[in-house]
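input
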Amino acid sequence: MPQDPALRAVGWARSLPVSSGVKTARDWTREHLARLGWDRTAPDLLDSVVLTVSELVTNAHVHARSDAQLILAWDEECLHVTVHDASPLVPEPRHAGEEATGGRGMLLIDALADEWQTYRCPRGKDVTACFQPPRPPRDGQ
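output
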C-alpha cells in the first residue's frame, strides 16, 4: 500500500529511570509538544497530555517498580503517548474511595484521552493513550 507523501510523522523517546522523577517526564513532554505549537494552538490539550504522562510514568515507577520508557509519536492525526514498564500486570480503572489518596489515575486517563489501550509485551507492557487535537473550523462554518 503506497504511503501518502503528505503524511509526516515525528516521534521522540526517552528512558526514565525510577530515580529521575516524574517531573522530568512532564517537562520533556511539554517541551516536545511546544515544538508542535500546541502551547499556542491547543494549550488545554497539552495540559491533558502532560497530566496523562505524569500518571503513566507514576504507574510505571510506583506500581510496576520499573523504569519507564516514554514514547511520543505524532502522525498529524493523533498524538500517541506510550509508556512501557517491566510489569506484566495490566492497569484497570478502579473505584477509589473518597478518602483514598490514589487509585484514580486510569480513570483520569480515560476521561482525558480520546482512547487508551494496553499491550502486553514479552518483557512487560505498553500503555498507549491517543489524543486528537481540535480540528480548525472549515470555511463557512
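quick obs: The longest helix spans residues 43-63.
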